[in-house]
Design goal:
Structural class: alpha/beta
Distance between the termini: 19 Å
Helix content: 40-55%
Number of strands: 8
Strand order of the largest sheet: 1-3-4-5-2-6
Strand content: 5-15%
Oligomer: single chain
CATH topology of the largest domain: Rossmann fold
Number of helices: 17
Order of helices and strands: HEHHEHEHEHEHHEHEHHHHEHHHH
CATH architecture of the largest domain: 3-Layer(aba) Sandwich
Length: about 375
Amino acid sequence: MDKSKKDEIILQQLDVIRTMSEHNLSRMGTDFWGSPLPVRKEEDQPGSAASTGNDDTKAPPAEDAAPPEKIEDLQAELDGYIGLAAVKKEVKNLINMVTVYKLRRDNGLPTTDLSLHMVFSGNPGTGKTTIARIMARIYHSLGILSKGQLVEVDRSGLVAGYVGQTALKTSKVIDSALGGVLFIDEAYALNGRAENDFGQEAIDTILKAMEDHRDDLVVIVAGYDGLMDAFIHSNPGLESRFNRFLHFDDYSVDEMLEIFKMQCNKGCYELGDGVEQQLREFIAEENTNSISFGNARGVRNLFERILVNQANRLAALDTVTREDLMKITTRDVALARGLEEESCAAQEGTPDTPEGREMAQESKLDTPPSGGLGEDLK
């Protein structure tokens, strides 16, 4: 085969690999904890995140609320999330309490005030946004919220730079969250305490809205453990309205390995022989600090680094089969770990030399696939 023809084939294969990788990653989304949800239009998803109010345009007109989902389906989805044992228990307790509260109200019995606002604390990547999203859908299913959407925002989406603008900006975000859950990430950033800081104005506006719309708005604030405690106790209004706390533990290495394998299943990837043990070691090496690694976010980063190496490996082949596109090999993982080519070749059992590569090619042609390099390059 002449060089120009081979180059043309390689370019075509690179284009196919890039397209399939982008498609698989887009299918996976950012939900690391459970099975993929049915694909629906964004505006039709009762638990989808809405605009955070960062722009100056008017909020889009209100859409008709999607019908409530079955609480049994939502509980099954919750059970399917990896880890989060303590959080799942608390959420189920809350579901039971809200169910009984609603039954008493429907039967004309007296009820105590039920505060559904919550404080989520934990390190990054531990599932706080995912649980906030499903809580919005659960409250909608139970008839507590009229729409069940999640509006995710941080300080930048609430605080403006001039006097009087913060209340307007925060009110706009609150309006978009009515009927659902307002999720404020790193909420302690609102408590800047600087002379010209307008975070307190945002806090005051939110507290007023929580009182005015107590029957159709739930606010969840989230962030690191100690900082969230200090934030809640810094303001009597916050202390009186937030009395429900959920702590999100870091994932264990085994749980993060399961998250990686779940991402593979969702993206139609398969682990070759020896890959799982190598992944366990890779995650343990990288997870020396759960804050900087980011738990499930760190797993996602490792996953994408490994896919880059898979794409580079496949781009060097003359032909690429469907099985090749699905297979992740020990070499892909080793290169993501920063091991040299020589070490990767030693792990695969062949020297990284022209002769070694020729031996591997001959072995591939002369012997049936056995799950090693011959199968990977088939």
